[in-house]
Amino acid sequence: MAETEFTATGVRIGRWLRSLTRAGQVRISDGRLMLLTSYGSEIDSAPVHSVRAGRPWFATGDRAAAVVNGTRYHLTLSERDPAPGEAGPPAVRSLLDAIRTAGGHTA
Q: Which end of the chain has fewer CB atoms surrounding its CB within 10 Å, N or C?
């Protein structure tokens, strides 16, 4: 199995006004972007080259939007500031860079 190119845990994943999970995962591996629940069940996945992602103009810096298989998902990569000495979750910029590097479309 190939090395995982990007993983973010503790991600709030929502669709419209509905929260699908508050502690999910976003993973890019083997050329696919996967949205997973906290239990590891797949919410949605698609080849990275068909995914569009970006930052909504109205959202704070820790939020992103991704269109996977025609469905728009709202991703919040952090809900709190990390404690001193604790590593925080990956930034939205890291996610967008990983999608761009893997061949996806970013705004």
A: N
